[in-house]
Amino acid sequence: MGLAAVARGVGAHRPRLVGAAALGVALAMLALAVPFARERVAQAPFAAVQGVLLVVAATAFWTIPSDLARRMRKNPLSVVGFAIIAAFVGVAVLAPILAPPPATSRDPYLIPQEGFASVPTPPRPGHPFGTTEGQYDLYYGIVWGARTAFRVSILVIAIAVAIGLVVGGLSGYYGGRVDEAMMRLTDVFLAFPSLVLAVTVVAVLGRSLTNVMIAIAIVHWPIYARLLRGDILSVRGRDYVEAARAAGAGDVRIIVRHVIPNAIYPFLVLSSLDMGLIVITAAALSFLGLGPDVGYADWGTLINLSRTWILGRPGEPFAYWYVLVYPGAAIFLFVLGWNLLGDAFRDILDPRLRGAG
Amino acid sequence: MAVYIARRLVLLPLVAFGVTVLIFALLSFLDPAVRAGAFITNPNQLKAIDSVIRTYGLDRPIYEQYWTWLREVFRGNLGWSQTARMPVREAIAAFFPGTLELTFYAFVPIMVIGVWLGTAAAVHRDRAIDHVSRVFSISFRSLPSFVWGLLVLMFFYGRMNWFPPGRLSLDADLFVRSGQFHAYTGLMTLDALLNGQLWIFADALRHIAGPALTLTMISIALLVRVMRSSMLEVLGQDYVRTARSKGLAEPVVIDKHARRNALIPVITLSSYTIVSLLGGVVITETIFNFPGIGRWGAFAAQQLDIPGVTGFTMFVAALTVLGNLAADVLYAVFDPRIRLG
């Protein structure tokens, strides 16, 4: 079992993947052929495309034959998680088609504004999710916000894993004083609630999306460092490592061939659970007004804009429900998808942890 | 065990030192005029910023600056907070009781409901209550606190008008400031009881319910899952089978034999929960406009009130370090199986 096996499985069974895609296309054509459905699709193209993508992703997932995939498939929650993430990947990839930026736009991540009136307007054709404060189109913001979410979480994980690999690798491999120093360093970073440290870093560096990513990476790397250190420590004394060493393998070879392959799955589990957490933290910083400027396609910023309106009008407490519910649902589903996937990964890869957490 | 705890205590100043270095390293990104704010104790000094820069040697080498800064921190001078319009130390003293009160009203339901739901889910494994607790726990783990908080505000204030934002209603606030009300602790509900003013108590409780509910739901998920798995592990132990086989009633087995032992990891987790609540108040207090250190910290960050942000951060870090120490000590005390050293 392994990712390589999954990849080989995908390669060997390409026809089924094509079949899944064909099913999706067929569904889309069916939707366009039936007048009633066509009307609905025109009203909410986002939801329709998401539905189609969900079906395609789920079918594709179903056809990947391998041990890992078979066990993932048995767990319905992991299937749901996978489908949600696949749908978000689809939305992020297809953003220019789902929500084409206006021809005059200089940056597609800037949400087009329909006038400058402050009062939000309800969903209607042309604005399927309505517009929020400042007449920013919610549908556009959510579609391109999916891209922002992936960009932020992937970049943050890349930075955090890179720092974690260096610090954890040095710590676990050399042990002794180096280990002690590195672990006290992680202690210092873990001495803050993560959001508090991130808020401070952004406040000092200045507010922008880049600084939000830097701040979250600074907060998240110690977990990866500790994980890798623990893995190295547990692998170091194993018989097969001793055997490799006896056979004349050097440090680098042992790390690359024996330590890292054993540490990949815990890293995978941790980072899939971390994806959700990173997006929550980034959105929280945007919500506090420390993220990108107003008008940037970012879920946290959209929710920040909703704050003035959630109490509605006198006599109509839910008059502006859409300004909170749509971006809120986007974040919730995104994080839920990663959590379901991460939990399933963990259950399959580490039966001892089954049911915990 | 004494050795283990002693070791942790020795490491404590080391981590505290590291925290100050980290904060100072962040501060050194800023230009001297902004950093001088950390040494200012009253608004008049703002006009003479150049002389403050010279007095505190902000044009000197970085390590000298660090010692100067650290000396001021140890004297308790954390600078002047523009957003609170008072010295940082006084701002912390003014805002912390509110946060403490809020943390308490979130912590109690978290422990009670968490332990109850976790036990129920383990005892009735794979039955309805177990599935409910599972869905509940993954949903609230995935729901960001600001979305949930805004939904709570939308429904319980906007629709029902039960839990208004802020700390007190206008009339209650006027009464508290009128001189007839003595603030013993700064904890509004406790002070109200000590003054014998039940209506203030009810009003304070109404205001704290919204943010407390938000914090509770967001933080409870982890506790439920840990309690459930710990309980499942204990239920499989020999002594539980013995208790059952000698004919003890099931409630006795659950309450007396199983639950008590299953609580060990939960006790350790409780201090971690308090730490995570201290992080959670930043968002929750901001949403509910609840005057505590979290709202002040967030506002200071938005307004680039650097002394305010760093003072807030160092204070929270100190609490976090103590909380983590408490968790380690509790773990060592309650679980004799832990390998010490």
Q: Would you mind describing this structure in some detail?
A:
The complex is a heterodimer of chains A (357) and B (341). Chain A has 357 residues and is mostly helical. Helices cover 73% and strands 1% of the residues of chain A. Chain A has 15 helices and two strands. A two-stranded antiparallel sheet of chain A has the order 1-2. With 341 residues, chain B is mostly helical. Chain B has a two-stranded antiparallel sheet with strand order 1-2. In chain B, β1 (80-81) and β2 form a beta hairpin. Chain B is globular and about 80 Å long. The termini of chain B are close together.
Describe the structure in brief:
Chain A is mostly helical. Helix content of chain A is 73%, strand content 1%. A two-stranded antiparallel ribbon of chain A has the order 1-2.
Summary tags:
heterodimer, A: 357 residues, mainly alpha, two-stranded antiparallel sheet, 15 helices, disordered C terminus, B: 341 residues, two-stranded antiparallel ribbon, globular
Give the ordered list of helices and strands of chain B.
HHHHEEHHHHHHHHHH
Count of extended strands of chain B? 2
Work out the helix count of chain A: 15
Strand order of the largest sheet of chain A: 1-2
Low-confidence segments of chain B, given as residue ranges, are: none
Tell me the number of helical segments of chain B per DSSP (H or I, 4 or more residues long).
14
Overall shape of chain B: globular
Could you tell me the radius of gyration of chain B in angstroms?
A: 24 Å
What's the main sheet of chain A like? 2 strands, antiparallel
Weakly predicted, low-confidence segments of chain A: 1-15, 353-357
The largest pleated sheet of chain B is described as:
2 strands, antiparallel
**Rounded radius of gyration of chain A (Å):** 23 Å
Structural class call of chain A reads mainly alpha
Distance between the termini of chain A: 25 Å
Strand content of chain B: under 5%
Distance between the termini of chain B: 8 Å
From N to C, what is the helix and strand string of chain A? HHHHHHHEEHHHHHHHH
Number of strands of chain A: 2
Percent range for helical residues of chain A? over 70%
